[in-house]
């Protein structure tokens, strides 16, 4: 490990950044030294489907970042979560708290500000696979099948994609059956007991039918060992899945593509470390006595660096997600340049969410100035180790129809969508550990029965809810190219009407039917949600082809996220949709004989009715009455006023020499959210009536990425080298400060921000190795993610009494792959 100490230093990081910057600045030098034999052949065209039709990326006047399936493999990516290291600036992908089975996806600081892990709560960035919207944050961590491209559309996409795309859309496009025999197989092993296998089989066309079968498997042991015998460790995964596609093409103008896929995803919770000991609260401005920090239990450990063994053992089990779905896509060319498309789908998902990764025994009776020797335990014996057990089930069906065509100088797309989903959740949170002495030097594991059977103490279902969502939408968009200036001007306008309806109920709170005060009388029974909203989302875009390789555009668009209700609330109170209206200007350029591509965009927008979560401990005010509860509750409020969004993005790709490709990107994202009143009582039951500042979460202000790919022919094989560098400036995961003085209402403990991140990934391959005299080829690769073993805390939470805890990023992983194509 000593040999890697230099690479972990800040100086080495600066050197690497300088080398990469020099590489990106290479065209001027290359132009002087360019020789005909060394000249690159130009950059490949990138085809995207952002406007519901296949188009060249450079001809599409939208800010889009694209990562190909091959590029994802170069980074040893398995799922969407692997894009969280910063491969695409302005896109942030992170696990929901400690649960990698549910993902937070933000674009330009918009998407999920807090908890989308609820049935009646939606995301703000739409995730699609082959045009099918995935309605839940759960299930997004499954292994990806044979990916063609991942397109990240930035900014509101409300016109063509509809609801819940106000931040943007992530569109995953998979490879279709080719009708020719092809076999692409990869197997690999790595550290932490990892192993993976992929099989992609194309069968020859028969009776106008082509079939493709994809199978994926990826498994890794825990990063952090759990000292409790019989319990799994932290941050492991076991993913596998199968997809079967059949393409029927009876004529040149009609095709039908039917797909079935099923996936299994078992992950263990991340390990939450105690990074800083409790500091306690300072004296209030009113002169109240200072509150001293809690005393830590003897077994607790402050662990400021990433560890490979937990401080003590906790009961753990994997979070298991199962998904399956069907898709039927029909395409009919009803007339020359007029195509009618139909996309039908049904999907089913169940996701268990188990975590016990934040069981730090640091919250208990706090010694005070008046009683500095207060006992640690209250009461005795002291129970701790909150074991969160959440079950989530969802099924959805959708039907979309599109009419795509060109008439004279107008390109158009029109269509309609119907979407329905049913979602249920339930949650338990028993304590699984119990101190056996007042020093906190020993503990026992409590026997907890999470199935309510005969053994152990039954874990009460603390909350449960269900909701059915129905959404219909009608949209149209047209681009007109007037006969002026050699067809250099393109004017696009679009509009979408959407109606959402949500019907559901919160039917369990604290193990019982909800009881809330209504007109001074307590009413017991399920609390209903019956809400609907209608919405118009327009878009206007003007693009100009300034030269053969330079296009500039200006765009105004809107999008929204549906309203709903929080299943963590005592009253299931309704909240309204939030919306984004954004202006964007950009340019897409190619120059240097198509060896250089520079795309830039700047944006400015309004962010209204922002959905903010506020949590309260053990009490809430419902209909003007204080109501007690046995758990933390969360309500969602729409922030007053108008927030502001602004930022800059740039991507540069160069092909200065044969086999050499350089890439660099940068993003600056700024989000300002209006100050908002916290509706929950604070310490001592005091309401803070003045608005408090809101931080933007899951959005680094600055982020950048760079990559070098180099292929060198060596007789009968090719040597390939890949290196990518990813940086972000750190981000908040909670958007309010931690503690407020109950008298002065001043901030007493500020919210910590996650560390800066600098991640390097690499791969070296020997490709095109001939296997016999036919077309069989083999590729041998060694790879590493987080090559320099850089460590940072990407998730930090704090409490004056419990200290600062957080999740570290993954340590260095590496492995060896063999790929065979025939």
- How many domain regions? 1
Residues in β-strands, percent: over 45%
Class based on secondary structure composition and strand pairing: mainly beta
What spatial form do the alpha-carbon principal axes imply? Answer: globular
The largest sheet is: 22 strands, antiparallel, barrel
Please work out how many helical segments DSSP would assign. 3
CATH topology: Maltoporin, Chain A
Q: Write down the Rg.
A: 28 Å
Give the CATH superfamily.
TonB-dependent receptor, beta-barrel domain
Q: How far is the first residue's CA from the last residue's CA?
A: 40 Å
Can you characterise this structure?
Residues 1-39, 284-289, 363-369 and 374-379 have low confidence and may be disordered. Helices cover 3% and strands 53% of the residues. The longest helix has 15 residues, at 10-24. It is globular and about 75 Å long. It has 822 residues and is mostly beta strands. The protein has one domain: TonB-dependent receptor, beta-barrel domain (Maltoporin, Chain A, Beta Barrel), CATH 2.40.170. It has a 22-stranded antiparallel β-barrel. The protein has a 5-stranded mixed β-sheet with strand order 3-8-9-6-7. Strand 27 and strand 28 form a beta hairpin.
Short précis:
The protein has 822 residues and is mostly beta strands. It is 3% helix and 53% strand.
């Amino acid at each position: 490990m000593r040999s890697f100490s230099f690479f972990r230093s800040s100086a080495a990081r600066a050197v690497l950044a300088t080398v990469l910057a020099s590489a990106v600045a290479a065209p001027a030098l290359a132009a002087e030294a360019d020789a005909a034999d060394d000249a690159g052949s130009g950059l490949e065209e990138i085809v995207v489907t952002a406007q519901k039709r296949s188009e060249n990326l450079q001809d599409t006047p939208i800010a889009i970042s694209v990562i190909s399936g091959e590029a994802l493999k170069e980074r040893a990516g398995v799922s969407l979560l692997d894009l969280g290291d910063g491969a695409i600036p302005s896109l942030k992908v992170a696990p929901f708290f400690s649960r990698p089975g549910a993902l937070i996806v933000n674009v330009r600081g918009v998407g999920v500000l807090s908890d989308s892990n609820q049935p009646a709560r939606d995301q703000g960035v739409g995730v699609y696979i082959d045009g099918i919207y995935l309605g839940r944050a759960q299930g997004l961590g499954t292994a990806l099948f044979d990916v063609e491209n991942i397109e990240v559309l930035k900014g509101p996409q409300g016109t063509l994609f509809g609801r819940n795309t106000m931040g943007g859309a992530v569109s995953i496009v998979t490879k279709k059956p080719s009708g020719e025999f092809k076999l692409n197989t990869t197997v690999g092993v790595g550290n932490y007991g990892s192993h993976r296998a992929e099989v992609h089989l194309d069968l020859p066309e028969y009776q106008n039918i082509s079939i493709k079968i994809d199978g994926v498997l990826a498994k890794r042991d825990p990063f952090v060992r759990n000292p409790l015998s019989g319990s799994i460790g932290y941050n492991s995964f076991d993913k596998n899945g199968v997809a079967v596609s059949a393409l029927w093409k009876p004529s040149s103008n009609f095709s039908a593509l039917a797909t079935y896929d099923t996936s299994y995803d078992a992950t263990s919770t991340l390990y939450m470390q105690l990074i800083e000991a409790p500091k306690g609260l300072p004296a209030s401005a009113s002169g109240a006595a200072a509150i001293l920090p809690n005393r830590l239990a003897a077994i607790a450990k402050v662990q400021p660096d990433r560890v490979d063994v937990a401080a003590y053992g906790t009961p753990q089990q994997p979070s298991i997600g199962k998904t399956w779905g069907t898709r039927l896509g029909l395409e009919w060319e009803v007339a020359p340049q007029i195509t009618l498309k139909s996309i039908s789908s049904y999907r089913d998902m169940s996701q268990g969410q188990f975590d016990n990764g934040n069981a730090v025994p640091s919250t208990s009776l706090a010694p005070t100035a008046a009683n500095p020797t207060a006992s640690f335990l209250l009461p005795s014996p002291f129970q701790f180790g909150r074991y969160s057990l959440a079950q989530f089930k969802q099924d959805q069906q959708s039907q979309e129809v599109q009419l795509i065509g060109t008439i004279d100088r107008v390109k158009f797309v029109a269509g309609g969508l119907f979407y329905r989903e049913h979602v249920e959740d339930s949650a338990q949170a028993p304590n699984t550990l119990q101190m056996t002495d007042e020093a906190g030097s020993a503990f026992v594991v409590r026997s907890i029965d999470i199935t309510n059977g005969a053994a152990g103490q039954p874990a009460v279902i603390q909350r449960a809810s269900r909701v059915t969502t129905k959404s219909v939408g009608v949209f149209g968009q047209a681009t007109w190219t007037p006969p002026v200036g050699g067809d250099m001007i393109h004017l696009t306008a679009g509009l979408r009407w959407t109606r959402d309806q949500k019907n559901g109920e919160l039917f369990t709170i604290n193990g019982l039917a909800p009881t809330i005060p209504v007109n001074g009388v307590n009413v017991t029974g399920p609390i209903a949600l019956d809400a609907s909203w209608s919405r118009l989302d327009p878009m206007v875009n003007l693009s100009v082809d300034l030269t053969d390789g330079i296009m500039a555009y200006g765009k105004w668009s809107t999008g929204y996220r549906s309203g709903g209700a929080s299943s963590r609330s005592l009253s299931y109170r309704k909240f309204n949709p939030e919306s984004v209206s954004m202006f964007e200007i950009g340019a897409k350029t190619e120059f240097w004989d198509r060896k250089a591509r520079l795309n830039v965009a700047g944006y400015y927008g309004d962010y209204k009715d922002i959905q903010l979560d506020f949590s309260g401990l053990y009490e809430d005010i419902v209909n003007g009455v204080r109501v007690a509860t046995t758990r933390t509750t969360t309500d969602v409020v729409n922030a007053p006023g108008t927030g502001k969004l602004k930022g800059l993005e740039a991507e540069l790709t160069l092909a200065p020499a044969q086999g050499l490709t350089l890439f660099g990107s940068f993003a600056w994202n700024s989000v300002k959210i209006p100050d908002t009143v916290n509706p929950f009582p604070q310490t001592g039951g005091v309401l803070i009536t003045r608005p408090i500042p809101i931080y933007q979460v899951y959005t680094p202000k600055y982020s950048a990425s760079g990559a070098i790919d180099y292929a060198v022919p060596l007789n009968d094989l090719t040597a390939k080298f890949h290196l990518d560098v990813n940086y972000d400036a750190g981000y908040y995961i909670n958007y309010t400060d931690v503690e407020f003085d109950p008298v002065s209402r001043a901030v007493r403990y500020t919210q910590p921000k996650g560390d800066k991140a600098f991640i390097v990934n690499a791969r070296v391959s020997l490709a095109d190795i001939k296997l016999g005299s036919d077309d069989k080829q083999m590729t041998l690769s060694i790879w590493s993610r987080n090559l320099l073993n850089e460590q940072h805390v990407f998730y930090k939470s704090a409490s004056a009494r419990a200290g600062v805890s957080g999740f570290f990023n993954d340590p260095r992983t590496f492995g060896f792959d063999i790929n065979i194509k025939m």
